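Q: what sequence does this backbone want?
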């Protein structure tokens, strides 16, 4: 009987591990740091499990780079008023977020987004966008 429960427990742990690994942002992003990029949106991928925006913006050396910015899922964003029509290529945006652990990847986990042309903005709970 004891081995039956042990097997069940091990099986549950094996199934749960990939779920927690998938949602471990700290493995990919440095949550102790915040960066800001300002540039032109070139692609908006409104999808699950995570939406992405791609922005052409200068890096810390002033070189133009294509930044991949990870956002929440389409379902969650829709509940926060963001739709697939909210952003278009060519939009000028200012994004803050946690940088990727590998700087050469030019990745960010989004914390705030602002489109200065009309004031459209989004922020994680507790974040402000001015």
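A:
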């Amino acid at each position: 009987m004891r081995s039956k429960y042990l097997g069940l427990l091990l099986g549950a742990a094996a199934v749960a591990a990939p779920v927690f690994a998938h949602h471990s942002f700290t493995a990919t992003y440095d949550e102790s740091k915040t960066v800001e990029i300002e540039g032109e949106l070139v692609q908006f991928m409104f999808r699950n499990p995570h939406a992405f925006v791609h922005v052409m913006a200068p890096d810390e050396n002033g070189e133009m780079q294509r930044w991949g910015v990870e956002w929440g899922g389409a379902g969650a964003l829709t509940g926060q008023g963001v739709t697939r029509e909210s952003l278009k290529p060519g939009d000028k945006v200012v994004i803050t977020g946690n940088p990727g652990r590998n700087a050469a990847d030019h990745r960010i986990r989004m914390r705030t987004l602002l489109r200065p042309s009309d004031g459209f903005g989004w922020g994680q709970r507790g974040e402000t966008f001015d």
